[in-house]
Design goal:
With about 350 residues, this protein is mostly helical. Helix content is about 75%, strand content about 0%.
Length: about 350
Amino acid sequence: MIYLFIFLICCILLALSKSSVNAEITEKNNSLTKFSLFITFFLLWGLAAFRYNVGTDYKVYSLVHFPRVLAGESGVWEPLSTLLVYIGNFIYGYVGIFALIHLIILSFLLVAIYDSSENITFSMSLLFLTGFFNISLNLMRQSIVIAIFLFSIQYIFKRDFKKYLLFMIIAFLFHKTAVFYFPMYFLYNLKFNTKRLCFIAIMILPVSYLLNFLLNFLTQYFDVYRNYWGSVEMLASNSTSGTLTILNIYILLMFFLIRSLARNITGEIKKKSDLYIYIQLISLVVIIFSNNFYLPNFDRILLLFTATQIISIPFFFKQKFNTYFKVLLFIFTIIIYCIAFYQLYYLKNTTGTFPYQTFF
């Protein structure tokens, strides 16, 4: 399995750099870490750029989207995504387009991991185990948006609204799903407490009805999404909800557990933990909503929030609580993710990324 082999190489390189944790400036600026990330970037980029007929959307891009964009048809893709198609095609045809798109995804993503992750090696493992890399081979425009958000999350912590807004606007010009990220900035100072959790739990059902109404309305307005309702893709998307529900409930409960056990979650650390908990709660709301109303391609929306786990989980494991329990929890978490990855992305092959093929 080439994915596992490549990611093992990447994780071993990062672990050997002795700079997995970004807590100290001397470690963060370690040249060996930067070199390891540089090698990691090219390994992952090569895997994505030189694939052939890998991913459920590969033929859709090659036979439908790219030709329509290059033919000058308006409204097919957002402005910056359209520009990427023209530039990539000029460089080296369709291969150039795939290569250029993942150049942007991985650039933002690895810089985000380097800047914001508390454990680079752990985050690299989660990049694989969450299925985000495999999914990015299909949902390329949305993956650009997610990568830009993960990069921009540092501006939420720094309270730099202008830079955050700038990058969200750029993300929106790649794909409209970036609109979901605009409110995230304001969650940072929203203190999390039990009463607010109960309120969220009570409001999930009525909000679900409201969102269902709005989505039906928007589906009629934006013709591009109309074909998702009742489609095969929609049914396949919702067929994964059981595994994703269990996984995301576990992650949320783990966050609560670590928060209750940790001795150092105060001040800015507490605000960060609150933000990550809110984002995880939103993930569960999306799942509950999809289970009740069969949200078309709900996993596309869910991915916007669950991808944050690449950074949020290492953050929680960085907190100070019983070392032996932390090791056991770490092992159990990795096992849970391995089971989910095996079931969703290998056994069911929901992303169509197995087996891997290249045109070489």
